[in-house]
Amino acid sequence: MSTFSRSDRRVSELPPAPAFRPGQRVLLLSPHPDDETLCCGGMIQQGVAAGAGVYVAWLTAGDGFEFDAALTGRTLHPGAQNLRELGNTRAREARRAVALLGVPAAHTFMLGYPDGALFRLFSVNYVQPFTSPRTRSSAVYVTGALTPKAPFSGQALEADLRRVLDRVQPDLVLVPAPQDFHPDHHTLTYLALRLMADRGQEDRLRFWVVHGGLEWPVPKGLHPELPLTVPPRARALPWQRVDLTAQQQARKVQAIDTYRSQTRIMGRFLRAFDRRNELLSPAALPPLSAPASPSPALAH
């Protein structure tokens, strides 16, 4: 049996995730614009169709990708202004993408903290504001941000996240799993675990992965007929399967393509998430009885 056949069989054997319910309040916390669509573009549509209230909050505007800023700004040497323009571009793309998936603008929150620096805010810059070496900003600058001019500090970020939780009062919160390779992603995990524990609501967290292992998901490019396989870095999590209809897949890839600033550079990676299912885990860690599996060396 081929590797793909074994992976396909394993995905088909996963239990289905519980369906969304009318009136349920679902909050998706996304580290960067596009993560929400890659991980959960089908789930967002299913939640909206079921009559749930679906909300999306982006922690950063994705303004740290210098090569992207060079292409967007048509310059060989992008400066701070180019990267701030990229942040606003990606914020606009994010709002258009989730609108395609059925999320109204009033259900979105752009926090606008520095891309690639969430762990610094979580740790050494919890109180003292951080100045991004890319945008030269030390406060939220993105147009339409939840708290304009909030300092780039962990305290301010946590305060914004608490504001979002207080406004939404979510029944479910979808966040990256701690095994996700990207530092911004697993830092968001730590924040969400702490904040939901403070509210006595850790059981409302559900976990997904975007950066799941070397070359995952494979093969790259558009393969809507294939399943999204279990990510190697998180293979021991108790995954559940969310099957998508062809219509949901088509709408998801439209939303992915809304991120033009990203698809012209990483299109084969982004479109590899247009698969016939998505994955969600009800737990951040494997069961205690599960043996630990070594994580492969991964490219960012």
Automatic annotation (TrEMBL):
<dbReference type="InterPro" id="IPR024078">
    <property type="entry name" value="LmbE-like_dom_sf"/>
</dbReference>
<dbReference type="Pfam" id="PF02585">
    <property type="entry name" value="PIG-L"/>
</dbReference>
<dbReference type="GO" id="GO:0016811">
    <property type="term" value="F:hydrolase activity, acting on carbon-nitrogen (but not peptide) bonds, in linear amides"/>
</dbReference>
<protein>
    <submittedName>
        <fullName>PIG-L family deacetylase</fullName>
    </submittedName>
</protein>
<dbReference type="InterPro" id="IPR003737">
    <property type="entry name" value="GlcNAc_PI_deacetylase-related"/>
</dbReference>
